[in-house]
Every structure is written in structure tokens, then in C-alpha cells.
Amino acid sequence: AQSVSQHNHHVILSEAASLELGCNYSYGGTVNLFWYVQYPGQHLQLLLKYFSGDPLVKGIKGFEAEFIKSKFSFNLRKPSVQWSDTAEYFCAVNLPTNAGKSTFGDGTTLTVKP
Amino acid sequence: SQTIHQWPATLVQPVGSPLSLECTVEGTSNPNLYWYRQAAGRGLQLLFYSVGIGQISSEVPQNLSASRPQDRQFILSSKKLLLSDSGFYLCAWSRTGGHGELFFGEGSRLTVL
Question: What would the mean pLDDT of B19-26 be, rounded to a whole number?
Fold first, then answer.
């Protein structure tokens, strides 16, 4: 079974700092990749996704992620964070042959100080 | 547009009592439906998923069960709750034949005393 590792459990940044959250997965074949975000008091929602094509994908609110197949990674980035980016971020992966079953990482809590 | 509703939002139950959490999806047909449990600092664990009415797959052995009596209704149940069933439960749906991107409900916080 595939597994997902998010190396940073809690990240604290000041506004305008750059962000990179790591995500690595264990499966060697073709995968679908996702980042979900949960803002305080809100439900979990999709931030961005990768299925195929350009390995650099852009999501909402200025976030982007790069799929590097050789490194089994799908890191999330944002050049300049805002206080409103404070949230918990989850990386997830599924297999196209069984897309209904996504495996999630343990999540990274991002705190942005104003 | 599609929406997902989950209730109750908060539930406090004694050990040994039954449980029923409900989830409904609107605005789509034949969705895949899921129950996840979210533990603090531990991410999301898939408990059950369903690709159609009456079709339930269980991912982990546990004290819980799921049912799908209608196309867009998914229910999480227990006959007798255990302390270890406490947690935050999330219902989600995805499109049939899609890439598995999930749309989540607001969640239900269950405390078993």
C-alpha cells in the first residue's frame, strides 16, 4: 500500500516569507496527487491537484506544487505567505487504477505571524 | 452546484450507546462516498467507501459500520460505542470515473464518555 510522508508537522513563518511544505509518497507507478487545506473553522477543501502533463501545477490563492517523479515528491510552495494562509495542509495520493482510495499524510500546521 | 451535508456536528455519547452519523450529497448522481476519521496530528484514515447503493467496502476492522440506503446518502453507525471511537469523522464524495479528488463535509466531532 502506498504511504505519504509530510516531513514538517508545524511550520511558523512571518508574513511575506516563502513557503515550501514537503510531501513524499512511496508508490513507484503512476499516481494522482493532491494538496488539501483546512482553514480554522472551515471544512477540508482541495487546494490543487496533479494528474498528468505539466509537473508544475497552480492552485488557488497563489499556491503551486511541483511533481518530481524521480524524487517521489509533490512539494507545496508559495512565494509570499499571508496571515490568512494559516491552516493545516494535507498531501494525498491515489492510484489511477483505484482513484477512490486516497492515502493522506499526517498534515502540516502552518502558522503565519502578522 | 454540488453540496455535502453532514450531521450532527457535535455528539457526546456514553460508552455502549448506539451511533448514527448521516451524510447527504446534493447536485450530483452516483457519487463515490467515503467516511474518514481524522485524528489530531495523524491525518485522515479511510474507514469506508461506497461506489453505489448497498456497496460498502471497509478499510479497517473496527466497531463501526456504514450503509448507503440511497444514492446520495451515507450513514456511519455503531451498535455499541467504545471510548476509542471518539474522534472527528468526515464524510466526503468524489465523482465516479474521476481522479478521486474529494469534497468534504464539515465533519462530526464524537466524544464517547
Answer: 97
